[in-house]
Amino acid sequence: MDKTRCGWCKNDPLYMAYHDTEWGVPVFADDKLFEFLILETFQAGLSWITILRKRENFKKAFDDFDYKKIANYTEAKFEELLLDAGIIRNRLKIKATISNAVAFMEVQQEFGSFSNYIWGFTKGKPIKNKWKTLSELPATTELSDVISKDLKKRGFKFVGPTVIYAHMQATGMTNDHVTDCFRYDEVS
Questions:
Q1: Which pTM was predicted?
Q2: pLDDT digits (tens, 9 = 90+) for 85-106
Q3: Given 8, 18, 22, 106, which residue is catalytic?
Q4: DSSP of 83-140, one letter per residue?
Q5: What are the pLDDT digits (tens) for 11-67?
Q6: 40 among known catalytic residues
Q7: Which one of the listed residues 40, 117, 131, 184 is annotated catalytic?
Q8: Active site residue 48
């Protein structure tokens, strides 16, 4: 019997696997939160499937998303990344990834972890929405606006409200599976 899924994953096996195992599952580990933040910033203006298809390339190019290493990237490493056809070679997004790694560690120092900081906006619990159709899902919310402004104030780049809302969805801060999706009750 086929499972009912959110319509955005269509019949693409990669999309379906991501939807079924990752999307909307609460993430509290800093390394994973950083990975999603980086992937979401690269996704800005592109489709998520494009990023998913290049995810392993990003992982390799950015040292397994090790923010401590990324924060110390040299100009030579930056230039190397610009030549890497396996990733999105956007100069501003690559620069933002490096500066975001620095800002990420500053947040960790202030709050004990990035997880404490980001989940503090939801009091440590996922927001469980009750969308019946994909057309009801917003691109941004008041909360994503607040988080975006705070991140920008802390020096983060490419973290507009739409990117942040996508990050919230991906990391389970908000459960935006539609109510008839089999994952709706499983993730939170």
A1: 0.95
A2: 999 999 999 999 999 999 999 9
A3: 18
A4: T-TTS---HHHHHHHHHHHHHHHHHHHHHSSHHHHHHHTTTTS-EE---SSGGG--S-
A5: 889 999 999 999 999 999 999 999 999 999 999 889 899 999 999 999 999 999 999
A6: yes
A7: 40
A8: yes
Query: How far, in Å, CA of 143 to CA of 100, rounded?
Result: 20
For residue 96, the number of C-alpha atoms closer than 13 Å in the C-beta half-sphere is: 23
- Would you call 131 a catalytic residue per the annotation? no
Q: How would you label 36-47 residue by residue, b for 16+ Cβ within 10 Å and e otherwise?
A: bbbbbbbbbeee
- Tokens linked to 172: 């389970």
- Output phi, psi for 125, to 5 deg: -125, 145
Band (3; pLDDT cuts 50, 70, 90):
confident
- Annotated catalytic residue, options 8, 22, 48, 106: 48
What is the pLDDT, as a whole number, of residue 1? 55
